[in-house]
């Protein structure tokens, strides 16, 4: 349920953006910041939260995260301006960062057999996909009935109820290896991600010649170099670069970034298109994405079956092919009045997204020592949030170009968003290729070497 809540909040806000724009009057870049402030903070803190769960107890950190998430949701529902909403979304993300990696770590420690773990991650993947894909549907219903603030306050009682259930039913677990928090590394990660997101979001508005854009790029380069230097010298780094010597782990991180960038960009473009271009009310726009939610649930279950019976490569190939075909179909339909093909594209995208989660999780965690499950899970979760935030930042620029012009808005949006659909199609093909790389004998041997190296510490 906590996984469903966090991922629901990733996307439920999308359908509320037009309502937020009507009342708070943010620009397109302001709308992007409302979404990406949450995703960026979530991505930056996931690794630290996973490490804290390993050290201080996963159930304890999990409960603190749920209460903080509820508090941030309540504050967001009361935000008087765009700036305050962005700030309160950061509070939400601080709490949410304590949920996903700790949840993955708990799964890894309870389900130690590969087949059982694959099945458990199938259920987890269904919760992730259902939360993200059903966000627009539930958001549309809430916005149309009670306004945009309702998408935040409805999370409060659910989060508190889950916190009580976790306290009663969840067993406590922690790593026998106690690692000191790496606050310097954490700060550098946050600065690096903030610099990247700022540059991507503000580039269309400020232009490539802007001193602020040059400053953003300088911050990205300096923080990236400093992070590499600092982390390699620390005894207990925030990011242990030895993880990335495992080819399956590294490839799974890249696939997660690509998959979530495609999904995040797709949902952001879809919200603008259905409400601002086609003129649909929030509920109808949300209902149009219901096939995507159903496809995600089906894809998650299919992926769990494929991973158990055919291996991760087949599951990832299915995911990549579905994403590529979905984007190709949608790119040709945008700008027309066709709804049948548009819905077919939504089903296929949901199927591909659902199929990707389980093999990515299984590949990332395979062979990792149980004592490092929290950090490995946090890296996997962080890569997803980085991908989604980049998707919103990049594809949001296309939406701004299409909606910000006069005349035939449908044709303008179709032309402006075409590069985005091409990129998502290429992303699907890249997932297939990376799945092949991650499934080879050399990849498995690299994972075994890294696991042995980490066990010695």
Quick gist of this model?
The chain is mainly alpha-helical.
Primary descriptors:
single chain; 457 residues; mainly alpha; Growth Hormone, Chain: A; 2 domains; globular
Estimate percent helicity: over 70%
Please state the average pLDDT score. Answer: 81
CATH C-level class of the largest domain is Mainly Alpha
CATH superfamily of the largest domain: MFS general substrate transporter like domains
Q: How widely separated are the two ends?
A: 34 Å
Secondary-structure arrangement, i.e. CATH architecture of the largest domain: Up-down Bundle
Count of strand segments: 0
- Please name the CATH topology of the largest domain: Growth Hormone, Chain: A
When the domains are counted, the total is: 2
Strand-pairing-aware structural class:
mainly alpha
Instruction: Give the radius of gyration.
Output: 21 Å
String of helices and strands: HHHHHHHHHHHHHHHHHHH
Low-confidence stretches: none
- Based on Cα principal axes, name the global outline: globular
| Biggest pleated sheet | none
Question: How much of the polypeptide forms β-strand, as a percent range?
Answer: under 5%
Counted by DSSP, the helix tally is 19
